[in-house]
């Protein structure tokens, strides 16, 4: 049975007989294993003789509506004198219809000439003691703007009486907190046993579950243990997979014309993901738990052989799925879908279409995230050059691609190219978008990263403080973009020897990321890695080693043994072994890291040269002086050729070689080098 909402008459007319049961659904016999939740909800509403309101929050299809409905029927059985009211609030139209229907059913006289009149009359009627005991369910209260918009605050029309109770059902816990304060009840998925039991009860041939228990558990897990998804599973057929995600499931306790909530929950989530800033979904990861839950469903749709490769809905879903995977740090999976979208758009729209170029730029970003810098550079250059022709260099998409390409140059140690391109982009953004625009701040943060890479600490600190302050002001302390800026500033503090300040900032970053992203997200691991460096620099070897060991293991599993970030963590752990006097372990790990960096990044890359310097330091402390000198000379020659003698890293290599000469008792040569370093530093300052 599908329930159609009754259309109200234009005039209220004479009131008919009073009806105290204004609930549009029949009782659902499929409510299962929710006794503890029902008891808790009842206790939250009826433990005192005062007005109470409770919000029931949870994923679409988890059973919020069914829980509230069952409570109303039980209340009706025990207390027949209760007025029970059900209002569907997915839109202003449905809410207005609900209030008009309530007024008619309760015999409230009102004028249709004023839009707010009926809501006010219902509120006043129920607020009087003469209305008796009543309970209202506001179902699907997901849109906070409907309740708090200053022009028509629906929250002000909620009736209050010692005889009244209110239930809100919502997918959005934040909405629940706004409407019911601390009285929010989160409804979780069914347990595995309950989910399997429900699946069995819904099947005609129940022995199918009994004889295939493992398969039944797998199916229940795939359905995320959501009651509505399980209820749908036995009757659904895969005649059209795309449409099955949006079909109106035949459920007696759903509204006519309303999409299946399992479907609409993730559809809403993926629409939110589409509103991106440059790199990450700009929703502060608030709905991450939602779309993480529904990713298996979407993935199943895309892998189904019944969906045409050129289906427009499929391509749109692939794009949104790729963005989710990228945001979640699952870069190889993101790459797969970005590439499929790029191939489709190139074929259907042409290689110069703006959407095709956007796909190309995002695929380049996925390559970068996997340390495939040369591939990222080649594709990024192609996207940027074509975007400049098609869109112009002042288009936000073009500027975004330019900025991302600059970061690729930076990670390739092509710092002159990186700085030139990022400064060019910054000037465009400052002029066109303004200093506090999110994209402008991204560019400023990229410059901080670039300055840190080159050892320009003062520039990095000054710009880092500006970007961090601006991000906090606009987005708050815990937004992912703010945390990224705080992490960059902490990195600068570490390099300046301000280890405690760095530790304080990084502790905040790690705690927030663990809570919002999880312990194994690439950004969380990045924060943990930098925090371990802070411990290392404060001679807290055991803490540093423990954290670095965890990060190395996690990155090897998540990103792979040859990833840029994995190699960084291995280098840090090797340095800790070195400082602990564990020279054999330090040497072994350092050589492994150095060889991988030579293979992946090349012999002239900054990180490769850093590994060679670290290995030279180990040799120096282990008394292997000739090896230390040989490596030191090779590093210095490369840096002078690539960066110039005056560069910070070249000067550091000269100082390191001077220390080696001192160990070899070659004092005069060491002093000559130190004098040369001082002269070059003074010349640079002047």
Automatic annotation (TrEMBL):
Q: Which domain of life is it from?
A: Eukaryota
What Pfam families does the database record attribute to this sequence?
Answer: NB-ARC, TPR_10, TPR_12
Q: Which SUPFAM superfamilies match?
A: P-loop containing nucleoside triphosphate hydrolases (SSF52540), TPR-like (SSF48452)
Which keywords annotate this record? Coiled coil
Q: Which residues form a coiled coil?
A: 651-683
What does the record give under GO molecular function?
ADP binding
> Where is the NB-ARC domain positioned along the sequence?
35-206
Answer whether the UniProt record assigns the keyword Chloroplast to this protein: no
Looking at the keywords, is Coiled coil present? yes
Q: What is this protein called?
A: TPR-like protein
Q: Say which species the protein is native to.
A: Penicillium hetheringtonii
User: What is the phylogenetic placement of the source species in the record?
Assistant: Eukaryota, Fungi, Dikarya, Ascomycota, Pezizomycotina
């Amino acid at each position: 049975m599908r329930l159609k909402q009754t259309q109200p008459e234009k005039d209220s007319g004479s009131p008919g007989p009073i009806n105290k049961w204004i609930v549009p659904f029949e009782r659902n016999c499929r409510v299962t294993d929710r006794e503890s939740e029902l008891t808790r909800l009842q206790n939250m509403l009826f433990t005192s003789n005062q007005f109470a309101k409770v919000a029931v929050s949870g994923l679409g299809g988890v059973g919020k509506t069914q829980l509230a409905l069952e409570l109303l029927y039980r209340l009706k059985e025990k207390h027949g004198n209760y007025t029970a009211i059900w209002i569907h609030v997915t839109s202003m139209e449905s809410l207005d219809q609900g209030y008009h229907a309530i007024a008619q059913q309760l015999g409230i006289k009102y004028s249709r000439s004023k839009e707010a009149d009926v809501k006010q009359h219902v509120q006043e009627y129920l607020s009087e003691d003469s209305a008796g005991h009543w309970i209202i369910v506001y179902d699907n209260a997901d849109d906070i703007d409907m309740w708090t918009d200053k022009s028509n605050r629906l929250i002000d029309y909620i009736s209050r009486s010692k005889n009244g109770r209110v239930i809100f059902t919502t997918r959005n816990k934040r909405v629940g907190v706004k409407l019911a304060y601390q009285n929010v009840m989160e409804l979780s998925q069914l347990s595995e046993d309950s989910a399997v039991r429900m699946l069995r009860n819904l099947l005609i041939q129940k022995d199918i579950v009994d004889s295939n228990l493992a398969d039944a558990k797998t199916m229940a897990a795939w359905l995320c243990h959501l009651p509505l998804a399980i209820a749908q599973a036995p009757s659904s057929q895969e005649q059209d997979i795309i449409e099955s995600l949006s079909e109106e499931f035949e459920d007696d306790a759903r509204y006519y014309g309303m999409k299946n909530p399992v479907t609409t929950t993730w559809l809403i989530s993926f629409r939110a993901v589409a509103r991106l800033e440059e790199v990450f979904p700009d929703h502060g990861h608030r709905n991450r738990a939602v779309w993480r839950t529904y990713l298996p469903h979407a993935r199943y749709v895309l892998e189904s052989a019944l969906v045409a490769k050129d289906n427009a809905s499929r391509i749109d879903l692939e794009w949104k799925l790729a963005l989710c995977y990228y945001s979640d740090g699952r870069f190889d999976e993101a790459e797969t879908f970005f590439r499929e979208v790029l191939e489709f758009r190139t074929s259907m729209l042409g290689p110069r279409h703006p959407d095709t170029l956007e796909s190309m730029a995002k695929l380049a970003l996925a390559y970068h995230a996997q340390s495939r810098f040369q591939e990222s550079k080649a594709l990024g250059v192609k996207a940027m050059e074509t975007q400049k022709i098609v869109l112009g260099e002042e288009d936000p998409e073009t500027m975004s691609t330019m900025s991302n390409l600059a970061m690729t140059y930076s990670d390739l140690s092509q710092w002159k190219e990186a700085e030139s391109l990022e400064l060019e982009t910054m000037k465009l953004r400052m002029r066109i978008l303004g200093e506090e625009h999110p994209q402008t701040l991204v560019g400023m943060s990229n410059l901080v990263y670039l300055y840190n890479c080159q050892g320009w600490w003062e520039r990095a600190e000054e710009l880092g403080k500006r970007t961090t302050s601006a991000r906090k002001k606009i987005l708050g302390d815990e937004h992912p973009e703010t945390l990224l800026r705080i992490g960059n500033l902490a990195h600068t503090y570490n390099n300046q020897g301000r280890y405690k300040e760095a530790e304080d900032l990084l502790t905040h970053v790690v705690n927030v990321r663990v809570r919002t992203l999880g312990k194994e997200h690439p950004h969380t691991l990045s924060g943990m890695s930098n925090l371990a460096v802070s411990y290392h620099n404060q001679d807290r070897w055991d803490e540093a080693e423990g954290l670095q060991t965890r990060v190395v293991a996690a990155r090897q599993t998540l990103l792979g043994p040859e990833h840029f970030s994995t190699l960084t963590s291995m280098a840090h752990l090797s340095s800790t072994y070195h400082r602990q006097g564990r020279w054999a372990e330090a040497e072994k790990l350092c050589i492994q890291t150095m060889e991988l960096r030579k293979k992946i990044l090349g012999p002239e890359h900054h990180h490769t040269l850093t590994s060679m310097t670290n290995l030279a330091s180990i040799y120096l402390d282990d008394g292997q002086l000739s090896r230390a000198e040989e490596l030191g000379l090779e590093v210095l020659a490369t840096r002078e050729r690539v960066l110039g003698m005056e560069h910070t890293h070249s000067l550091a290599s000269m100082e390191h070689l001077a220390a080696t000469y001192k160990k070899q008792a070659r004092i005069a040569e060491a002093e000559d080098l130190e004098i040369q370093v001082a002269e070059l530093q003074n010349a640079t300052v002047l």
